[in-house]
Amino acid sequence: MLWNFPSNPLGATPEAGAADQLASLLRAEAPLTVVSDEVYEDFVFDGTHLSPAAALPADLASRVWSVFSFSKSYGVAGIRVGYVHAPAGHAANVARLSWATTMSTGSLSQAAALGLLRAGPGDAVAFRDQVRAARDLADGRLREAGLPVTAPRAGLFCWVDVSATGLDGEDLADRASRECGVLFLPGTEFSPRAPAMVRLSFGGEPAALREALDRLVPWLASLVADTRSGPAPERAVAGAPAATVR
Ligand SMILES: Cc1ncc(COP(=O)(O)O)c(C=O)c1O
Questions:
Q1: Most CB contacts within 10 A, which of 102, 137, 176, 203?
Q2: How far is ligand 1, taken at its centre, from the CA of residue 124, in Å?
Q3: Measured from the CB, is residue 77 less than 6 Å from ligand 1?
């Protein structure tokens, strides 16, 4: 079973009682093993992170494989370093699998990861505070455009319903890249059931985020206003044949 909290793209965190529910499920389904993807563990804005391996009783925790990454916590996706907290006795199997697929992690990346670990959690904490402020900014500004935003309780993304713009997520993302120079992902990258959604990241540089929102929000608001006012009535333009003016 794949467990992904904080989730991408929803920014969701487990509801109260989730650890007990997971425990009941694991007791009922004896062979079930959990892969817990916790790469957004450091970006929980409301409450604290729930790590199943730490929350479950020891006999069940031994069926959880927890996956973490430097990519998010330290903002260094380019170094491609993550790690697995495996049940006792299985770490060597993970290392063997890793060896069989990538041979080794680049030595420069390893040195970078080691440097980050030696520097301690200070950078990660400062980064989380920066990201929390970015979440508040992005969430507030996107609402200004008149779009319903799923308030992210964690993670690095706003998940936004763009139906009010009159465009689906794919067309909107395409036009935003060309007309605003701002990139984001359509919801269909995550689910075929999310054609009306887009996912915007607020995890980048604060100045770039402010600039992107300054370009995007008025543009989105004008699309929403155009859609609300409906198609413009036909009117006659002096000296010319009747034309539809938008
Ligand atoms: C939920 C989730 N798990 C794992 C990853 C992969 O992270 P990495 O950069 O370590 O490959 C991502 C990356 O976006 C993610 O969103």
A1: 176
A2: 17
A3: yes
**Pocket lining: 35 vs ligand 1, CB cutoff 6 Å:** no
Residues comprising the chain, all counted: 246
* pLDDT, one tens digit for every residue, the chain (246 residues): 999 999 999 999 999 999 999 999 999 998 899 999 999 999 998 889 999 999 999 999 999 999 999 999 888 999 999 999 999 899 999 999 999 998 989 999 999 999 999 988 776 778 888 999 999 999 999 999 999 888 799 999 999 999 999 999 999 999 999 999 999 999 999 999 999 999 999 998 999 999 999 999 999 999 999 998 876 555 444 444 333 333
Residues 151, 157, 163, 164, CA torsion sign: positive
**Is the previous residue joined to 121 through a cis bond, with omega within 30 degrees of 0?**
no
* Ligand 1 centroid distance, CA of 128 (Å): 17
Residue 4 CA, closest ligand 1 atom number: 1
Q: What is the pTM of this model?
A: 0.87
69 within ligand 1 shell (Cβ under 6 A):
yes
223: Cβ–Cβ under 8 A, 6 or more apart, which residues? Answer: 165, 166, 167, 172
